[in-house]
Each structure stands twice: as structure tokens, then as C-alpha cells.
Amino acid sequence: MSVRYVLAAPVAAHASVQPIAADAYELTAGRLVGTVAALVALAGVVIGALALARSAGRIGNGNGKRGAFVALVTGLFGVVIGAVNLGVADGGPGTGNGVIGGALALALGLIAVVLSRLALVRSRRAGRPADRPVHLRAAE
User: Fold this and answer.
1) Which one of 22, 31, 54, 91 is most buried, counting C-beta atoms within 10 A?
2) In percent, how much of the chain has pLDDT > 70?
3) CB within 8 Å of 89: residues ≥ 6 apart
4) Residues 26, 28, 32, 33: is their CA dihedral positive or negative?
5) Per-residue pLDDT tens for 11-55?
6) Residue 52, Cβ neighbours under 10 Å: how many?
7) Which residue, 25, 42, 41, is CA-closest to 94?
């Protein structure tokens, strides 16, 4: 065995283990998980915004508690799955690991959780007559 063969073997083994960057249009498992988590978190943001508007009395009837709980669950789902996706990714953006989708899911999930919390606080406050604004108390 030559010295070159002994030194070249670990380099070749290391090169074969390295992840290969995915094509730009290829849908990998990491990209799919990141995209689904980001879409669920985006749905949580939309539902949380609607629940917040409903709890303020701007649209619809009711106090928005149900929408706030749905936004909370979908936001937490986005945060957890986005964080897990970022944690298991072994490359950066463009490697096919879903890093961008995971980061987007994490950010949108946090926004959904904050909106749902605001809607829950406002819906609790809207139930008490003393806390309602003057223009709403006069209509009763």
C-alpha cells in the first residue's frame, strides 16, 4: 500500500458523505416540511388577525375566542415544526433542507401566537360592561 492511497482514502470517504445541494426546483422532504409549517403558521396569522378584529367588535358577531384558540394552536405548530426543521438542517439556504421555510414558519408562528394572545385578552375584557368604550355602552 502506498502512502498516497492511505492518505487519499479518508478524503474520498469524507467527500462521499457530504450532502449534495438540491436543484432549485426540486421538492425535498425538508423543503416540504418547511413549506407546510410556514403555510400553517400563515393561516394562524390570518385567523389571529380576524379573531383580533372580531374581539374588537369590528367584524362579525361574537368575541373571537374560538378563532384565537385556533390561531394559538396553528401558531404553536408553526413555531415547533419550524424550530425542529431548523435544528435538523445540516446546511444553509439552498441546500434543500427547508431552512428558509423553517425560519419563515418560526417567525409567522410567533406572530400568530402574539395575535391570538391579544385577541384572547381583548375578548375577556369585552365581556365586562365597565371596560367597554363609552360608544359601546351607550348602544346597550
Assistant:
1) 54
2) 64
3) 30, 95, 97, 98, 99, 102
4) negative
5) 555 555 555 666 667 777 788 888 899 999 999 999 999 888 877
6) 24
7) 25
